[in-house]
Amino acid sequence: MNPELPPAISLSDQPEKYRRLLLAWFDGNKRQLPWRGRRTLYGTWISEMMLQQTTVKVVIPYWEKFLTAFPDVKTLAAADLAEVLSLWSGLGFYRRARQLHEAARIVVDQMDGELPREVEGWSALPGIGPYASGAVASIGLGLRVPALDANARRVFSRWLIDDPNSLADLKPAHLDQVAAHLVDDERPGDWNEAVMELGALVCRAADPRCSTCPVRPLCRAHLAGVVDRVPPAKTVSSSIKVRLGLLVIQWRDQVFLLPPASGPVVIPPDSNPPVREDISGLHGGLWGLPSTSWLPPSGKSTSGWPGHIWRSWMTGHPDLEYSDVEEDPVLLGSFRHAITRYRLMVYVYRLRLAEARTHGCENAVDVSKPQFQSGEFAKSIPPVLNSMRAGFLSIPSPNHPISNLVAKSLRLAANSSV
Ligand code: ADE
Q1: What is the CA radius of gyration of the chain?
Q2: Is the CB of 51 under 6 A from ligand 1?
């Protein structure tokens, strides 16, 4: 081992050096973010839930809109889940949005509307794991607890790697212990944010900017010249490839959407067994497009399915009557999309209808009637939505939240010249 390295940190080391260097850097370099400028416990909770999904840049407009629509826990608890999902639409992992809504209802119904004031109270709420409880408690309440997200884990692994020669990662339990020990006594929230900020801006996974790092003199991976190999790259063995088709049925500026949990509507002929039978958990609460099952990739990676795979479903669907029976949907194109560990190849089909009609329910909407053709169709949507029936809907609207996957398909259809 390199004799020049500072000693591996242990619980007997002095954490002050790390704190002094990093907090001074944070004070001069932190990003101006809306939830930092308008710091509240509630706003911190929402920002941390969103930041677990994606990058700061993506989260900013979502957080602003969310706080405008639901400025406090009471308005969030009183909202319809569909409204919440709609404002979450595009962030992905919708279970987190459902849990956020459920947690708000618990706070209002069982805790007099008062957000918890200690870590344990946060940990007991749905959707709050060790990271989120630590982040909210330290940043929102000033409690001295660690918050280890992926950025923070990488930063600590580099600073404190036990043996740079073997490139062995610090054991998670050791990392947790050291992270807890390092938290600044006076500024726990700033400390946690500073570690994450350093990970996002300087101590990046790819292309780390060590020359601008304030903690460089104390970083064992830097001093040993192994930063870009710490932590060791994980083997990406767990991703699962999936092929599926989605159907955009358009009538004027309306799109035919299916209510939540409709599931796949078509299993293309001659297909292998689906990769995943039940996809409702991934998109629970969201409106969807008619879909094929999630199938393994085909040998011919560029091919979709023939357009007539949708035909038997279309002719049999009780909410859909269409006059273009001669037409089969056409394949517009494809795109890649990732959902948890699934790597999807999505084929988008489109059928344009000259005339369309929904029928078969009390609130039936005959879209072929003249008033609907003069733009009044949207006014008749709520009854259809209330009864959770499929229908032609204009998008996007808070009344029918859609997933990122569906939004991408609609964008592809909107931009298609086919
Ligand atoms: N990533 C997640 N939460 C963060 C925060 N509060 N500051 C910086 N990066 C973060």
Answers
A1: 26
A2: yes
Domain boundaries, the chain: 16-229, 240-415
- Fold held by 16-229: Endonuclease III; domain 1 (1.10.340)
Name which residue leads in pLDDT, 217 or 376.
217
Nearest-atom index, ligand 1, CA of 33 = 7
Strand partners, 247: 349
Q: Are 16-229 and 240-415 the same fold in CATH? A: no
Contacts of 334 (CB under 8 A, 6+ apart): 304, 345, 346, 347, 348
Is 277 known to be catalytic? no
* Architecture label for domain 240-415: Alpha-Beta Complex (3.90)
Q: pLDDT, tens digit, for every residue of 146-194?
A: 999 999 999 999 998 877 666 666 677 878 888 999 999 999 999 999 9
Q: Exposed, middle or buried, 245 (CB in 10 Å: 0-12/13-18/19+)?
A: buried
Average pLDDT over residues 209-221: 94
Instruction: Report yes or no: 259 and 215 within 8 Å, Cβ to Cβ.
Output: no
The stretches of 318-380 forming alpha helices (DSSP H) are 370-371
The whole-model pTM stands at 0.74
Helix (H) or strand (E) holding 133: helix 130-135
Q: Which amino acid, residue 137?
A: A
pLDDT in tens, 273-330: 888 877 766 777 788 899 999 998 876 655 789 999 998 888 777 666 655 456 889 9
Of 268, 224, 254, whose CA–CA distance to 375 is shortest?
254
For ligand 1, say whether the CB of 190 is within 6 Å of any of its atoms: no
| Tokens coding 78 | 């009183």
